[in-house]
Amino acid sequence: MSDAFYTHASLYDLMFPGGPGADFYRNAANQQGGGVLELGCGTGHKLIPIAADGHPCTGLDLSTHMLAEARRKADARGVTVEWLRGDMRAFDLGRTFDFVFIAANSLLHLHEADDLVTCFRTIRRHLAPGARFVFDVFNPNVRLLARADGVRRNRATFPDPDRGAVTVDVAETYDAHAQVTRGTWHLSTDVEPDFVVAPLDIRSIFPQELPLLLTLGGLRLVERLGDWSGRPFAADTPLQLCICEAA
């Protein structure tokens, strides 16, 4: 994981304000009931509303900056969450959970197959009987991956109450052997060009390999959806939204 990318936690929230994924995970947690664990919890965008519904919640993340912002936001809302610094590949919380999730492609910070399997095995040990593990990763598009030529291009613009309009440019290349897109993100304003320059490398998990990785991790893929509306997964759907249980 690029620590530099997540140092500016408040900017992260402005750049990625959320969307239907937050509602999906909140509804899924309410349907499942019980204790909730989010891995790669970031600033708590998805976990804090779940905790506000009355679920005992734990959030684990590797970034101290993201966790500090999560604590600030939870305190401001008057919500209790246990925030922990840790690596999703190797943690032992000494208890199990009824609902575990990894949102917003956070799983793709793990680039090696062994790391993914180790993560899944660790999650398996933290699942209570009848528990569900849910995560979303993008569905790789080989045409888009092939266009990652290292050229810096504008990705987005978002408003910052302190800086004004912030533009986001990204330059990416795709390492086909490693299945990793290697990017550099540039955040700029008219008066502060490139005030943040941070690397971000994200793995692709192709649909055929995903069930095998889960099986090696002691998990079973119960259902795979293609978008937040619940459409079945297909070759042209944008997401692999995976609902899993202990094998």
Structure keywords:
247 residues; alpha/beta; Rossmann fold; 2 domains; 7-stranded mixed beta sheet; 28% helix; methyltransferase; Methyltransf_25; SAM-dependent methyltransferase
Question: Separation of termini?
Answer: 29 Å
The structure class reads: alpha/beta
Give the radius of gyration: 18 Å
Which outline best applies? globular
Per DSSP, what share of the residues sits in E-state strands of 2 or more residues?
A: 25-35%
CATH superfamily of the largest domain: Vaccinia Virus protein VP39
CATH topology value of the largest domain = Rossmann fold
Count helical runs.
Answer: 8
- Gross CATH architecture of the largest domain: 3-Layer(aba) Sandwich
Largest sheet report: 7 strands, mixed
Q: How many domains would you count in the coordinates?
A: 2
Mean pLDDT: 96
State the share of residues found in helices, binned by percent. 25-40%
CATH class of the largest domain: Alpha Beta
Series of secondary-structure elements, N-terminal to C-terminal: HHHEHEHEEHEHEEEEHEE
In spatial order, strands of the major sheet run 3-2-1-4-5-11-10
Which regions have little confidence, pLDDT < 50, spanning 5+ residues? none
How many strand units? 11
